[in-house]
C-alpha cells in the first residue's frame, strides 16, 4: 500500500510540474480557446468527483470528493464566464446605441 501511495504522489508532482511548464509556454492569445477545452476536462472531473462524493457514508474520500466537487464547479463556472466575456469582445457594436 505504501508503494502505491508513493507512486501516486510521484505522478501527481510530475503532472503538476509538467502542467505548469506547458501552461507557461502558451501565448496569451491562445488562453481563451484552451480555456474552453479545460472547461470540458473540468466537467469530466466534476462528474468523477460527484461519483466519489455521492457514496453516502462519510469518510475521508467522501470529504475529499465534496471538496473536489466544489472546486471543479468553481472552475467550470469561472471558465465559462471568462470565455463568455472574451467572446463579447468580438461582437460587433450596435451603431444606433
From TrEMBL:
One of its GO terms (biological process) is NADPH regeneration. GO terms for cellular component: plasma membrane. It is an enzyme of class 7 (translocase). Pfam families: PNTB_4TM. Keywords: Cell inner membrane, Cell membrane, Membrane, NAD, NADP, Translocase, Transmembrane, Transmembrane helix. It is found in: Cell inner membrane. InterPro entries: NADP_transhyd_a_C. The chain crosses the membrane at residues 6-23, 35-54, 60-83. It comes from the Bacteria. It catalyses: NAD(+) + NADPH + H(+)(in) = NADH + NADP(+) + H(+)(out). Residues 9-92 form the NAD(P) transhydrogenase alpha subunit C-terminal domain. It is a multi-pass membrane protein. Its EC number is 7.1.1.1. Signal peptide: none annotated. One of its GO terms (molecular function) is NADP binding. Its main location: membrane. The transhydrogenation between NADH and NADP is coupled to respiration and ATP hydrolysis and functions as a proton pump across the membrane. This is proton-translocating NAD(P)(+) transhydrogenase. It comes from Leptolyngbya sp. NK1-12.
Amino acid at each position: 500500500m505504501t508503494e502505491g501511495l508513493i507512486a501516486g504522489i510521484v505522478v501527481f508532482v510530475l503532472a503538476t510540474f509538467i502542467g505548469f511548464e506547458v501552461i507557461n509556454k502558451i501565448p496569451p492569445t491562445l488562453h481563451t480557446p484552451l480555456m474552453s477545452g479545460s472547461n470540458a476536462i473540468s466537467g469530466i472531473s466534476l462528474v468523477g468527483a460527484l461519483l466519489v462524493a455521492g457514496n453516502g457514508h462519510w469518510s475521508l474520500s467522501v470529504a475529499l470528493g465534496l471538496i473536489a466537487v466544489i472546486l471543479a464547479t468553481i472552475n467550470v463556472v469561472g471558465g465559462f464566464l471568462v470565455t463568455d466575456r472574451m467572446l463579447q469582445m468580438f461582437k460587433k457594436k450596435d451603431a444606433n446605441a
